[in-house]
């Protein structure tokens, strides 16, 4: 009989050792009661939608960064922000590395941060002053999470003041050494 109960004694027999003292041990021992496919066990039917035809490939005239680990790109993808500038250069280098490598993901995170500043510079070059409060979500945070917002602003102010203080202290130290 198939049910959701764990039966540690079955696991004990199949492995020759007693692991019954471990809570949940052998929960997946019964292959007919595979907990990863509960819907299949309940309905005893194949799931619909497992086999499908690949949609037609989207055409594009912009650069698409593609992983080296998959032969094809997905059928449909976003084209609103093609790689460009310093962040684009970092992304191109990152995509040369494996998806399982820090050499891929850390540069992509760095490229995202640099992309934020590139966007701000782009706003200035187009004659627009960026609305940092709205773009960063600070208006919503002020309205819904005011305490956390105040803590963040205070922490940023203290850290900035400390860094500026250290900078000017070192600058004055070097001035004293030169005179």
What would you say this structure looks like, in words?
- Among the domains are: 81-129; 136-178.
- By secondary structure, it is mainly alpha-helical.
- It has seven helices and no strands.
- 51% of the residues lie in helices and 0% in strands.
Key structural traits:
179 residues, mainly alpha, 51% helix
The largest β sheet comes out as:
none
Average pLDDT score: 82
Count of helical stretches: 7
Elements, N to C (H/E): HHHHHHH
Kindly, what is the distance between the CA atoms of the first and last residues, rounded to a whole number of angstroms?
A: 91 Å
Uncertain regions spanning at least 5 consecutive residues: none
Proportion of helical residues: 40-55%
Transmembrane segments: 149-169
Keywords: Membrane, Transmembrane, Transmembrane helix
Region (Disordered): 1-59
Biased composition (Basic and acidic residues): 12-21
């Amino acid at each position: 009989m198939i049910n959701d109960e764990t039966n540690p004694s079955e696991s004990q027999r199949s492995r020759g050792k007693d692991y019954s003292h471990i809570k949940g041990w052998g929960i997946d021992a019964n292959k007919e009661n595979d907990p990863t496919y509960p819907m299949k066990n309940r309905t005893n039917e194949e799931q619909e939608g497992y086999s499908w035809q690949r949609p037609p490939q989207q055409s594009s005239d912009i650069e698409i960064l593609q992983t080296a680990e998959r032969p094809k790109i997905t059928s449909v993808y976003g084209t609103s922000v093609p790689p460009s500038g310093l962040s684009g250069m970092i992304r191109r280098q990152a995509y040369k590395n494996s998806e399982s490598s820090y050499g891929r993901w850390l540069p992509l995170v760095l490229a995202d941060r640099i992309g934020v500043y590139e966007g701000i510079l782009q706003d200035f070059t187009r004659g627009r002053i960026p609305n940092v409060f709205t773009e960063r979500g600070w208006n919503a945070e002020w309205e819904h999470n005011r305490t956390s917002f105040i803590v963040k602003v205070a922490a940023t102010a203290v850290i900035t003041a400390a860094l500026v203080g250290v900078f000017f202290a070192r600058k004055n130290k070097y001035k004293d050494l030169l005179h």
